[in-house]
Amino acid sequence: MSHKPIDIAIISSFPPRKCGIASFTNDLTQNIEQLFDPSLKVKIFALNTASSNSFDYPKKVVGQIHNTNLKDYLKAAKIINQSPSIQSVLIQHEFGLFNGKNNSYLQKFIKLLEKPIIIVCHTILPKPKPFAKELFKLFQAKSKALITLTENSRQTLINEYGISKKQIFVIPHGIPSTQFVTNAEKQKIKLNLHLKNKLILTTFGLLNKGKGLEYAIKAVARIIRHKPNLRYLIIGPTHPEVKKREGEKYRNKLIKLVNILGIQKNIKFYNAYQKTSKLLNYLKATDIYLATPLDENQAVSGTLSYALGTGLPVISTAFAHAKEIISEQNGLLIKFKDVADLADALERLILNTPFRNQLAKNAFFSTRDMLWHNVALNYANIILKFIPAKNYNFRKLPKIRIGHLKRLTNKFGVFQFADLFFPNPSYGYTLDDNARALVAATKHFAMTKNKTGLKLANIYLNFIKKSQIKNGSFVNYFHADYSTNHNENEKCSLEDSNARTLYALYATLNENGLPKKIYHKIQSILKHAKPLQQNFRFLRAKAFYVKGLYNFYKIKKQKLTYDQINKNCRQLLLSYQKHKRSNWHWFEPILTYSNSMLSEAMLYGYLVTKNIKYFKIAKLTLEFLVKESFNKNRCVPIGQNGWYKRGGQKTKFDQQPEEVAALVQTLIKMYQITQEKKYFILAHKTFSWFLGNNTLSQFVYDPSTQGCFDGFGQKSLNFNQGAESTISYLLARLALEEPHS
Where among 170, 198, 220 does a domain terminate? Predict the structure, then answer.
């Protein structure tokens, strides 16, 4: 769906200029553009220093501002004001980026702008001088929003600058999306970096004397005798502006100190700007990260955020940002310029491996809200809030990938659960998950012709055959050793899993282009299952059964299939009539799980029988469910921790992917039948729950693993990525392609 193009102008330094804010802006722009469709673009006005020549910038840099040239500021303001596509201006502010006394050129630039302004405040100085207060008062008067990267900075703006708290938003520094590194994987990475059997400490970033690395080096010298295999990696070139002023004075001082202490074998300098991928590799090999800044007021440290986000236990001086994001759960705070304190902290972590490992896990999981795609989403939400034309119901859809589904699958089937993104065999397998997986894998193969999907489909189909018992029905639960879990199968109702399996078999039978042996195997299973003689009691089982029979009816129109579809839809209709109220248009006195499947079954009943009553009930109940599943433009599905009883309070948590995925699929089916665009738009809005348009404002889909988190509670994600969640996401994502196929 096309939109009128909208551009966001960003005023910032930008690569290939080497500075922290340039890297920050590059990551931010890439992630904003990855989130939204092509009609939302970023245009960069790159800031250059007086002493630097113009850089060879990428195409998205549409203008350059030399920070000492007032004419450049005025020209940029004119271009922005006259551009019909530029709808908002985002200014990255750090005092050193802008010239003119008291940032006077920036002030004149801001006063000229006629578009909504948002200012990102990277440096908030406590006890501000009068000029700083005056500057930020201008920011408040001329901007729609001020963004700080920490809560401490926000409080400083409120309490010391007198800025209204309503105008300030906190969005943390972004971090790359990486998978958690196990100790076994860490050893492999060390081997590749020629650091086998070494205990690795790391500090990275642009070197300057404010980093306090001399104290870290002295602390390392103290503990070398206990850990001769220790290696301290100091990664990064000298800051370009520092290098222009004093050359490599600070680096040479550090090298001289290393030589005096006689620890040349234990300290390694990497005097080069590292690509993100290579830098992350070093961090993944790291056992402990050291952050030793000397400025207690340092508001933000991107390097500290990266370290925590990679899952590293951190030892840091107690500067402002560190005090906000480091606790006893993810690291240790030390005194400034205190070699003994740092050495003690190092020994504490080095000698206690279980403690160090726990800190690493805590660091990783406490920073998931800081992933760049979550950060970019929050920036985009603020930017779009102040743009008059709000065209952004759609996020750019991720490519359809089945890597995590493959990871969860072995030769027998797909494992039910995962620890993080690692399969957890101890809980075994379920027919439910393998039936879901069969549908996802065959649809993926039909759409992409990728043979991995076909290979997986054969595994899931063999699982279904294995689960079929003598009477033709299916058992649901299997142990990790592939044996039947009789206890669980006898304890639980098997209706849902049996009906879902019949649907999966018929849906696969209805897919074109599969090998003949798959169709033959399905027909063999169905012949034994006697599907047209089923008499399910529960509504969701009836709904899956109808969905399956609809697929069979498309292949072979016979009266018995027609009668079974009609019979089950009549029973759903009777249940609706029994439980409906003036404010409750539903089939039951409670909304539970996979709710939209009941409405969807009525749509299939309508398609087969042409009974308009079925369509009317499908539409009425679906629109009731949508109303109860949305808060404005955000999907808030029925929570699984209590559900929603008629006359009671809707439970908002735990929100789970299966409920959202079911609603996406039903809305797409309604769109295909009616061709009403509102259902297509609603399907995309619902799917955007996976992409951060939810009550946590965080991605539930994980691009780094190609899996899906197991939903979320009131405050945090469930970081496990099991079969039901991942397959539900895939089914929803595949459904969005169906209108175009």
Answer: 170
Say what the pTM is. Answer: 0.87
From the list 586, 609, 611, the residue with the least C-alpha distance to 597 is 586
| Residues 6 or more apart in contact with residue 335 via CB below 8 angstroms | 317, 318, 341
Element of type H or E holding 184: helix 183-192
| Structural domains counted in the chain | 3
Q: Tens of pLDDT along 513-563? A: 999 999 999 999 999 998 778 889 999 999 999 999 999 999 999 999 999
Q: Would 509 be classed as within a structural domain? A: yes
C-alpha pair distances (Å), 200 with each of 144, 361, 432, 465, 542 = 45, 17, 45, 51, 58
Half-sphere exposure of 156 (CA within 13 A, CB side): 24
Q: Give the residue from 505, 534, 563 where a domain finishes.
A: 534
CATH number at residue 270: 3.40.50.2000
Q: How many CB atoms lie within 10 A of CB 360?
A: 28
Helix (H, G, I), strand (E, B) or coil at 582: coil
Claim to verify: residue 110 and residue 150 sit in the same structural domain? yes
Q: Are strands 61-66 and 40-48 parallel, antiparallel or unpaired?
A: parallel
**Residue 663, domain member (yes or no):** no
In 3D space, the residue among 204, 151, 170, 174 whose CA is nearest the CA of residue 24 turns out to be 174
Tell me: the pLDDT tens digits for 571-580?
999 999 999 9
Report d(CA 656, CA 400) in Å as an integer: 20
**What phi, psi does 3 have (nearest 5°)?**
-130, 160
Beta-bridge mates of residue 121:
93, 148
240 domain-assigned: yes
Domain that holds residue 269: 183-370
Are residues 122 and 149 part of one domain? yes
Q: How far apart are CA 339 and CA 353, in angstroms?
A: 22
Other CB atoms within a 10 A radius of the CB of residue 71 amount to: 10
**CB within 8 Å of 521: residues ≥ 6 apart:** 461, 465
In a domain, 574, yes or no: no
Count of CB atoms within 10 A of residue 262's CB?
10
CB atoms within 10 A of CB 101: 8
Structure tokens at 24: 């920050």
Q: Are 235 and 274 in contact (CB under 8 A)?
A: yes
Q: CB within 8 A of 713, min separation 6: which ones?
A: 641, 653, 654
What backbone torsions phi and psi does residue 109 show, to the nearest 5 degrees?
-60, -50
Q: What does DSSP say about strands 644-645 and 590-591: parallel, antiparallel, or unpaired?
A: antiparallel
